[in-house]
Amino acid sequence: MRSGSRKNATYAAFREVGRVIRTVQLLRYLSDAPLRRRVTAATNKVESFNRFSQWIGFGNRGVIADNDPVEQEKAMKFNALLTNVVIFHNALDIAEIVRQLLEEGWEVDPEDLAHISPYLTEHINRFGEYSTHELGIQPEAYDPELDVDFTPLREQDLIAAGLGQAA
Q1: What does the domain layout of the chain look like in residue ranges?
Q2: DSSP secondary structure string, 47-74?
Q3: Which pLDDT tens digit goes with each residue over 77-116?
Q4: Is the pLDDT of residue 159 over 60?
Q5: From residue 22, how far is each of 19, 32, 33 by CA, in Å?
Q6: pTM, whole model, 2 decimals?
Q7: Contacting residues for 121 by C-beta, under 8 A, at least 6 apart
């Protein structure tokens, strides 16, 4: 008998174990409101990323028309690279705005920053004219430091995940 045969006893046992695990997880999901909120938040983030990535890869309405697997992989990787570049640029812009607010004396709540998405598109003109005369300009060095204390959010996440202790 093949190991993948539906008549194989090991296969049947693992199938039943899988069903038990799925049932337990479903019951946990239904009975745990904070878990449902975390799953919904994570799902929304993934869906937002996918919408953003589709928006970035607007050419040919997102359809990869080439039958060559190498060309298909190139198209997917180029879209992923462009998506990540735009996200990084948006994150730099957001960080710069936060720095300016801090310099002006504003208090920046980490909870507010946690709700800002880097999937911004309003400032991108996909069909515009682009000047290349600025290509010789050297950008400023990237400063990864942002003077905002995210510790309360990290502790809140650990407590919600059951890994930390409430104070």
Answers
A1: 9-160
A2: HHHHHHHHHH--GGGG------HHHHHH
A3: 998 999 999 999 999 999 999 999 999 999 988 888 888 8
A4: yes
A5: 5, 15, 18
A6: 0.66
A7: 52, 55
